[in-house]
Amino acid sequence: MLQDKKMIVWGTGDKSKLFTQHLWKMQPEFYVDNNEDKNNTILYGKRVVLPSCVECWEEYLVVVAIKEYESVYKQLEQYGLKHGIDFMHFTEVLRSNEYVEKMISTDIENALHDIENRAEILQNRILIWGAMLAFDSNSIANLNEVNKSEHIIVFSEASKERIMTNVTNEDIIFDYYELPFILLKNHYLKQRQNTLLNRNFQCEYIAQKDYLNDARKVLRKKYWSMEYGYENYMIYYYDYFIRRVMDILKPKCVVMWNQFYPLHAVLDYVCHEMGVKVVYIEYGSLPGTYAIDYRGQMGESIVSVESEWFKALTVEEEELEYAEKVWRYLFTSRLNRKIQPENDWISEINRKIRQDRPIIFYAGQNDYESGLYPYTERTKEFHSPVFKSSMDALVFLAEKARENNWNLIYKPHPVCMEERISVPNNVILIKEGDINDIINFADVTVTILSQVGYISTIRKKPTVMLGYTQLKGKECTYEAFERDKIMSIIKEALIDGFTSAQERNFLRHIAQLVKYYLYDDNSTKEISFGKQFNELWRCKNNSVLK
To answer: Mean pLDDT score of the chain, rounded to an integer?
Structure first.
């Protein structure tokens, strides 16, 4: 489209902003606007000029990014420019598959070129992959500390703009690369009109490989507003980029943040195929910690898969006493990995609740980042033996709540809060609310895979688990892993509540997690718990590499 021309954008309003966001790393030379007040101002790091300041219009492709464009078209035609050759509307650009393909491939190759140029000094390091940098300055500080003893490279799925809202370049002392735009987490081309992205060679390549096809299905389901066919670009180039990076850098191992992000299934597969060790890191089951595991996360973690072994690990009396302090702190501080919203959800619920009837709280999980979707034999073995989705379980629970005259409250995971969500009419939906208060309000908490199971147990609420997490087999929750036993187990939880035996077992579980499994995230809190994060990486005793 550009050929030998440079690009300029006419317009400085909302449409211009929208177009600029779709430019990946390509930027216009400058912006043009008829508004004299905007002359010589700066927009998105580029100068804004009047049309009269442009000397040689023929050198540029003018992208008109305003809603009422007819008068601008006439103005450009007066300069001797032709529509479709010298200028076009921004929607014409965004509807162009050629533009999309060119931006993607150029961005990918430029990133790989930068990595190749530094390959000699970057090879044979620990490679950390994911969105970890985006969360807070504390994550940056932890990685800085790690880098002192074991040089790392971070491939960030968070954009530089998002990272720099918390820190500056000077705060980061390790090597890091922002992934190409198409590979950033939650960045994708939204639906456009009359356009299909569907390159045959990409579709054929993906169709031949089960691991790519599964990831494609999850992306399509997770990002339902994505441009049709764009998931093929994401999957194809993710696979291509990872293979090239592994071949260039030959890392000691890859530390992956969040095993179940759909694109990470591709990373996982490619690493194992190429003989690169993978270690998994995520927020720990106790707030204020990280969990690092060579087996996997959630139901695939060593804590879940080897549940009996983990439950038998020894803890001393003083370690149980310290675990009690940790539990008390988590209970009173209401510590959570996410800031809880403040709203008057209780008033709304009180208007809908049926008094003097049991209250069941069902917490949904992020189906697309918890190992639940697509629902396979592996899912049944490691995650959810009965239900295929949050909604699948909700429909079942709603039917049983109606039969038993129970109140049923449902809170979807924030990521799965689509506008199109529909729930049975006897379900009370909470879109936002402090999870601690919701748990306190209910008589029993039910979930498949949500870490709300831990928050509920911390709050000494009877908790019914329908799927496998690190709580599996620890005898501190009610486990309902067979459909025909779920109702009797929920009734048992309503009658017996959080038992003294469950309390003892959970205290022991906390002590074992803190001693053997979890790492303190070094965030500001009154009490620290878990192993020291930087100890994991020390060269002399590097358990990540064992």
So the answer is: 89
Burial class (CB in 10 A: 0-12, 13-18, 19+), 280: buried
Q: Report yes or no: 95 and 192 within 8 Å, Cβ to Cβ.
A: yes
State how far the Cα of 217 lies from the Cα of 229, in Å rounded to an integer: 11
Whether 264 contacts 256, CB under 8 Å: yes
- Phi first, then psi, for residue 18 (nearest 5°) are -60, -45
Contact 108, 180 (CB under 8 A): yes
Question: Has domain 313-517 been given CATH number 3.40.50.620?
Answer: no
Listed by start position, the domains of the chain span: 6-94, 98-283, 313-517
Q: How many other CB atoms sit within 10 Å of the CB of residue 220? A: 16
Fold match between 6-94 and 98-283? yes
How large is the average pLDDT for residues 179-195? 74
- Average of pLDDT values for 2-12? 85
Q: Which CATH class is domain 6-94?
A: alpha beta
Q: 428: left (phi > 0), else alpha (psi -120 to 50), else beta?
A: beta
Tokens standing for residue 393:
């379980």
pTM for this model (two decimals): 0.84
One-letter amino acid identity for 53?
Answer: C
Is pLDDT of 320 > 50?
Answer: yes
Maximum pairwise Cα distance, the chain: 87
| pLDDT for residue 545 is more than 90 | no
Classify domain 98-283 at the CATH topology level: Rossmann fold (3.40.50)
Instruction: Specify the higher pLDDT residue, 59 or 417.
Output: 59
Q: Does 84 score more than 80 pLDDT?
A: yes
153 in Cβ contact with 176 (< 8 Å) = yes
> Looking at the DSSP assignment, which residues form a beta bridge with residue 154?
128, 176
Q: How far apart are CA 354 and CA 406, in angstroms?
A: 8
Write the CB contacts of 21 (distance below 8 Å, at least 6 apart in sequence): none
The per-residue pLDDT for 324 is 98
| CA distance to 154, 192, 280, 303, 461, per residue, from 290 (Å) | 17, 40, 10, 14, 24
At residue 423 the predicted structure's pLDDT band, cuts being 50, 70 and 90, is confident
Residue 346 φ/ψ, nearest 5 degrees: -65, -35
